Amino acid sequence: MIAVIADDLSGAAELAGAALRHGLSAEVQTVFTRRTDADVICVDTDTRSLSPKAAAHAAGEAARHVAEANPEWIYKKVDSVLRGHVLAELKAIMTAAGRLRTILISANPSRKRVIRDGHLFVDDQPLHATAFARDPEHPRTTSRVADLLGGDLSGVDAPDAGSTADLIRHAALVDDGTLAAGGVEFFEALLARHGFAPSASVNHPAGKDRFSAGSGRSDSHPITLAVCGSAASWSRRRQQAAEREIPTFSLPLDSAEITGAIRSHGIALIGIGDGPATRGIAASILLGKLAQASAEVIREASVARVLLEGGATAAAVVRELGWSRLCAYEASAAGVGTLRPVQATAPILSIKPGSYDWPTELWP
């Protein structure tokens, strides 16, 4: 068993999808349990929005439980632009899992997120010159990796990485005393090092006919609910929905109205939005309202696929529905993890970070 510890659900889902693409079965868990036949277990600690102390404690506890199961190796998934409490969690996991050092590579070169001369670049722009500088929770006001991490970096090596060849070279340096940490592409380099090549057939063999059962829709366009909890992405998603004549709803949300729209159109987009109903209200409360409405619509409209944008949004909806174990279901485009809760009647969930657009094949 290979274990992954992620600080949000979109990251856990992304790595589960990568494992599936490499011919491995994978499961995402919100509470770690070894009672599974999955080759890869991705644990979501949901710690990105916590305080550094609370995040470190939760990550350390997850690592302690994981280490007791004697995994072949442990990987710490971090955000590609190092949002969250990366260093605090790395230190806690190193202590709990008995690792002497960490190799940290958040770069995803194929998506033009690279590290050069100790600085992080996105699309050839220094990180602080991109939209990430305006991130509402973790603004990236510098591109220097050491400053983004902060604190004492002893035992933590964050080398430059600008190509797949760099990732492969760094993966060869990971030994039993090393915690490997970073993005999805460093994880894939480690999988390759351990002999797992991308598989030609990776989709889950069961359940495809559920997508259109009783809906009159094709397998490629199942009954779909798209959920956007990102304020930064909302205007763009709303525009994309309008271009496709997709019904769009923002807070306050009426689940009956949304259910009716889905039954008529086969799809709807819902989100927190940016209207008067959001003014002066804590983000956690708004997200809770969005998750509650999402769960009601999923149950009432017999939704077959849910598009969840953002790790916090995905985690809130999954919690609202009471799901703690989700199996990697199919290999979607890079950056997207597609999961199915272990409950046989549950919909398929496609989950992605808020900083990427939906792939065309998923966004009808």
Task: Record keyword descriptors for this entry.
single chain, 364 residues, alpha/beta, Rossmann fold, Molybdenum Cofactor Biosythetic Enzyme, Chain A, 14-stranded mixed beta sheet, 3-stranded antiparallel beta sheet, 10 helices
How does the SSE layout of this entry go?
Elements: E1 2-6, H1 9-21, E2 26-29, E3 40-44, H2 52-68, E4 73-77, H3 86-97, E5 101-105, E6 113-116, E7 119-122, E8 125-126, H4 145-149, E9 156-157, H5 164-171, E10 178-182, H6 184-193, E11 224-228, H7 231-243, E12 248-250, H8 255-265, E13 267-271, H9 283-300, E14 305-309, H10 311-320, E15 325-330, E16 337-341, E17 348-352
Parallel strand pairs: 1-3, 1-4, 2-3, 4-10, 5-9, 5-10, 11-13, 11-14, 12-13, 14-17
Antiparallel strand pairs: 2-15, 6-7, 7-8, 15-16, 16-17
Helix pairs in contact: 1-6, 2-3, 5-6, 8-9, 9-10
What does this structure look like?
This protein has a 14-stranded mixed β-sheet, with helices on both faces. It has two domains: 2-193, Putative sugar-binding, N-terminal domain (Rossmann fold, 3-Layer(aba) Sandwich); 208-352, Molybdenum Cofactor Biosythetic Enzyme, Chain A. It has 364 residues and is an alpha/beta fold. The protein has helices at 9-21, 52-68, 86-97, 145-149, 164-171, 184-193, 231-243, 255-265, 283-300, 311-320, and strands at 2-6, 26-29, 40-44, 73-77, 101-105, 113-116, 119-122, 125-126, 156-157, 178-182, 224-228, 248-250, 267-271, 305-309, 325-330, 337-341, 348-352. Strand 12 (248-250), helix 8 and strand 13 form a beta-alpha-beta unit.
